[in-house]
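Exercise 7.
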Amino acid sequence: MKQVEIYLKNICLSFLLFLSRKKRLKNEKYSIEPGAKILFVRLNRIGDALVVTPLLSEIKKNMNVEISVLASQTNYIVFEDCPAVNKVIAFDKGLKSFWRLLKLIENEKFTAIVDLHDDVSTTVSFLIALAKVPLKFGLKKSNSRIYTHTVVKIDPTQTHVVERNLALLTLFKLNYDKEKINIVYQPSKISLAKAEAFLTKIFKEKKFLIGINISAGDEARFWGVERYRRLLSFFQNYNANVLLLSTTRDLNHAILITSKNEPFFYSPSFDEFAAMISKLDFLFTPDTSTVHLASAFKVPMFGIYVQFNTDDLPWTPYQSKHEIVLTREPNFVNLNFEEVITKLKPFVEEYV
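Solution. The predicted structure, written as tokens, is:
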């Protein structure tokens, strides 16, 4: 049944691409006037949202435009708290919701709609092809005919994901200074106060603060209870406070790891989790969204990465010092403790 659905989607998309061809050829010259409304589309996960915040920030800083973002239910919070974004629209699955969204886009009278996806998304392709918007921007890929204007997709094996997104600035006739670009995320004052209060309560003395995040987007990137126990013991050799961090999903893992009552922090709120990351002096993590938070707050970071069946550059932090260990396997089962410590020890000792 799934294969039939994919087949039908591909047929429909091919038809839409055919219909879109003439429109693109007619619309080579364009301008974006002051006050124009622009809709950016970025669905999927939190990390996918964080890596496009530099692009949105550069456009907002250099152009007098109103920025809206169509986001997923998962990554909505990133754009909701982004200073560059005026309005966030949450994407709802389902045919009725899709048609309502198309009507909303028509009523908003956007000047441009921008596809921020690196790869082809069938859902987003349908949306952009059917949306009644004069300008349709995106990276050049197999669905390029649905756009009125494209920019070449930079080689993902040679270029950081942030810079691949920033290539879209060309369509806005903008340049950027690489040294001034960074991920943008600002936790609320309430979340920052909660993080500070938690640390003051847990640690009697203020020291260099090391955070060990055990949570990632999927279970394949959980490194294992025993390895994290050994990592806790390793960091306790330094004159530092050590804090384990997890999502509520991995709370049972955290309890097992901290069997000797070592301190740990968890929260169902992404904003509170981000606030705690901002308080760290050093971070260990297997998770790419946390990596980008480290970049936003310029926290030195050591990451363990799964790079299975791809040659794309890993999603390292854009503007914070970092070191990483990669495995080419689909999970961390065979990533041994000694291999990680060999690279971690000299790196952490640069800071603590």
